[in-house]
Amino acid sequence: MSHPLIELQNVTRQYTPEIPSGVKNVSVAVRKGGVTAIIGESGSGKSTLLKLIYGLLAPDEGDLLYEGAHIKGPHEKLIPGHDAMKMVSQDFSLNIYAKAYDNIAALLPNTDVPAKQQRTLEVMELLRIDHLRNKRAVDLSGGEQQRVAIARAVITRPEVILLDEPFSQVDAILKSQLRADIKSLSAQLGITIIMVTHDPADALSMADELWILKDGRLLESGAPKQLYYHPQNSYTARLLAGSNILNQKQAASVGIDTHSAEISIRPDQVVLGDDTSSENLFTVRQQLFKGFYYELLLENSMCRLRAISLNEITVGAPVSIIINGYTEYN
Questions:
Q1: Is the distance from CB of 234 to CB of 262 less than 8 angstroms?
Q2: Which residues are bridge partners to 61 per DSSP?
Q3: Do 194 and 323 share a domain, yes or no?
Q4: Do 108 and 255 reside in the same domain of the chain?
Q5: Is 33 in the same domain as 88?
Q6: Distance CA 130, CA 30 (A)
Q7: Does pTM top 0.70 for this prediction?
Q8: Tens of pLDDT, residue by residue, the chain (330 residues)
Q9: Torsion of CA 12, 16, 20, 22, to 10 degrees
Q10: Radius of gyration of the chain from its Cα atoms, rounded to whole angstroms
Q11: Residue 187, exposed/middle/buried by CB under 10 A (0-12, 13-18, 19+)?
Q12: Which domain holds residue 268?
């Protein structure tokens, strides 16, 4: 019987018993290949989970398996970390006064120097940093250092790469390219990638599988489209889609009769109209220009709604709305 590549079985790791921290009773599996994104707010346990998978931390309870075998913790290995994995931390761990090329090539032995040079340049070209080969790491931008750190991880052909907030030091212009390059790494080299992020745009655009963490607990996991369009809890709806979360009374004020404790409505499910005689009348309280669309904050006597519009609308103007879909939660 085949095993998942990585499996977490009821894993708990707490830093202090008095204050909620770490992760609690997490059970989930990673299949071979593709990109898995762990997403949640700050303090949700994302980085702790990544360190547990790599073997830098040991669980208080439960077990972690790699191809069915126990992943050894730091108390079981002289040098912590799983041999089939490489981890890229937020500090990059580069020799800042060495050249980019030397930072990467240093991970390979000198038994075959021409092959070492070829392999290093191939990886640098794959990550679009071959033109930086003679620049010192200290002279590189944060985004360039990030690419060098990823190249260092890739050069030894690991089966799994763990990325802790890989886009934290990358500006918006370069972020989309780095997303595509990381996705390409997984496809071209057959590497399984597990990454931590707090940005839903990163997770939705890159991942084949999402894990949603809140207060150390795994709320749900699944494909990005499934969790975006059919979230099983309101936290996921708010995190991934910026959904409006309404209770029963608030739902009634927008024309929804429900017996559920709360509902979620994505901003794109709020359809605007100009029928000022409508019962569902809201006032535009705020309008934010987002390029090809506007993000609106609407308000009535019971609730506020985030909505989107392709057209500019005067702040203070009344608008009617129609709710084009919602998800219920008991």
A1: yes
A2: 12
A3: no
A4: no
A5: yes
A6: 32
A7: yes
A8: 467 999 999 999 998 877 777 999 999 999 998 999 999 998 899 999 999 999 999 999 999 999 999 999 999 999 999 999 999 988 888 999 999 999 999 999 999 999 999 999 999 998 999 999 999 999 998 889 999 999 999 999 999 999 999 887 777 777 888 888 888 888 888 999 999 998 898 899 999 999 999 999 999 999 999 999 999 999 999 999 999 999 999 999 999 999 999 999 999 999 998 777 777 789 999 999 999 999 999 999 999 999 999 999 999 999 999 999 999 998
A9: -40
A10: 24
A11: exposed
A12: 244-329
> Is position 1 within any domain?
no
CA distance 299 to 254: 11
Whether 259 and 232 share a structural domain: no
CA distances from 197 to 171, 252, 280 (A): 15, 36, 37
Q: Both tokens of residue 218?
A: 């795994």
DSSP 288-318: EE-SSSEEEEEE-SS-EEEEEESS---TT-E
What's the chain's length in residues? 330
Contact yes or no for 132/155 (Cβ under 8 A): no
List of residues 6+ apart from 26 with CB closer than 8 A: 8, 10, 11, 12, 49, 62, 216, 217, 218
